[in-house]
Design brief:
The protein is mainly beta and 256 residues long. 6% of the residues lie in helices and 38% in strands. It has 2 domains: 121 residues, Immunoglobulin-like, CATH 2.60.40; 91 residues, Sandwich (Immunoglobulin-like). Strand 11 and strand 12 form a beta hairpin. It comes from Geomonas limicola.
């Protein structure tokens, strides 16, 4: 086949368009942009003799698109060593603590939008640090989350709780011994529908300073279980909760 000027020009024109991005192509998407975005609100709080690690799920992919195939998380933990020996980035620093699948929340519970993992395998006066990765249905892992670090201390003793009903509220009364570590910051009140698991729904926005709390939000005819935890403020500004009090059930008293 003999190439002429007339036949070559269309070929050169198509080649030019191809090199210039011929057609209506969008921006190239890097594979790493399709993985889940990392968790950004990982936190660790001491409650009794365990650390409760909590986080919320990302809603977007790394590239900014809506995340549709989140399958779970991998939680890691490391022991923080003394200064001069500690290494957050060393390959063997972290070990896998929990693998969380959203289709079956083994060892993990949910409270509102947050996932909760209770870590009991701890030593007193030891500092632990956590990080977590989001995992897609295809097994792609996100970047590491923010770090959450806590030192385990001796917690305050739990309160003793009683509940009484009235037409307008369930009235909780409780007493506790002052904490040995830090100072008393108040009490946290938890609630759940009776028979549907331990109370995990925190009712108060800040620790309650009084020894009486009126819950005016229950539905009439629904029985609730309550628990209370003493909150101590440590010298470094962190707070630690006691173990849970005894459970006490209550329901709104129906008006005559």
């Amino acid at each position: 086949m003999t190439l002429t000027r007339k036949s070559v020009l269309p070929l050169l024109f198509c080649l030019f368009l191809a090199l210039a991005g011929c057609g209506k192509r969008g921006a190239l998407i890097r594979p790493e942009a399709l993985v889940p975005a990392p968790v950004t609100d990982l936190a660790a709080t001491q409650r009794g003799n365990f650390l409760q690690v909590s986080w919320s799920a990302p809603t977007k992919e790394e590239g900014g698109s809506r995340l549709k195939d989140l399958a779970g998380f991998i939680l890691f933990r490391r022991v923080v060593l003394p200064a001069g020996q500690d290494c957050d980035t060393c390959p063997e620093a972290y070990s896998e603590r929990a693998r969380v699948g959203l289709d079956y929340l083994k060892d993990v519970t949910r409270s509102g939008s947050r996932y909760l993992f209770d870590d009991y395998d701890l030593k007193a006066d030891q500092t632990y640090q956590y990080k977590i990765r989001s995992v897609s249905a295809e097994g792609s892992e996100s970047r590491d989350s923010n770090r959450a670090r806590r030192t385990v201390v001796t917690p305050p003793l739990p309160p003793v709780l009683e509940a009484a009903a009235s037409p307008s509220a369930v009235v909780l009364s409780f007493v506790a011994i002052p904490p040995e570590n830090g100072k008393l910051a108040g009490y946290n009140i938890y609630r759940a529908e009776a028979g549907k698991g331990l109370p995990t729904n925190l009712l108060n926005a800040a620790p309650v300073n009084a020894n009486i709390y009126e819950d005016k939000t229950p539905l009439i005819g629904v029985r609730y279980s309550y628990s209370v935890r003493t909150v101590a403020e440590l010298p470094n500004g962190e707070t630690v909760e006691s173990a849970s009090s005894n459970l006490a059930d209550g329901t709104l008293q129906e008006r005559d």
